[in-house]
Amino acid sequence: QLVGETSYFCVCFSHTSTTTTTTKMSHPPIVWAQREDVIYLTIQVSDITAPSVEIEGHKFSFDGIGGAEQKEYSVDIELFGEITVEDSQQKISGREAFFVLKKKSEGYWPRLTKDKVKYPWLKVDFNKWKDEDESDDEDTAQKAPDMNGMGDMSALLQQMQASGMGMDGMNMDGMGMGMGDMMPPTSQEQDSDDSDDDDIPGLEEESN
Q1: What is the pTM of this model?
Q2: Alpha carbons 78 and 40: distance in angstroms, whole number
Q3: Distance (Å) of CA 126 to CA 42, 72, 137, 150, 169
């Protein structure tokens, strides 16, 4: 190195650009309903594999792979109210994942989520829905079959009363049958009929 000369060192850094490909998670379709003490939540994804569920306080999280295309699904929900985890239940079948979330405080929620936001993947489960002011008796009455079956008979009686003919004035003989014909035979009548049948062979023997 010569005196008076200045040495320069070049330090070079090599940078390789890498592109990371991330898989986009899809929100699973979810329907929900409620009672005063529980939330019914159904994730409508079939054939779920490797499900991961986290329920803690106001938080509900789900991750899993499922559906016909075996897509990856993920959802995080900030619930309106708090959930008691130890009293909640879940059932994951080949059709869906169903959850019964126990409310920490009883009472109807105005919505499922804490934020007043309408999500396209979240809908009401009308098959399980029940309004707050709908009692158990009303719910049972709506599902109970109609046992009256007397609509036509009532109309007939009204027509008879309007024409001045009541039950006392009905000539059942003229209609081809009496009230006794309309009633099933009693056990005594059946015994009487049986005894008459037993006497017939005896009467035939006397005639001979």
Answers
A1: 0.56
A2: 15
A3: 12, 27, 19, 32, 53
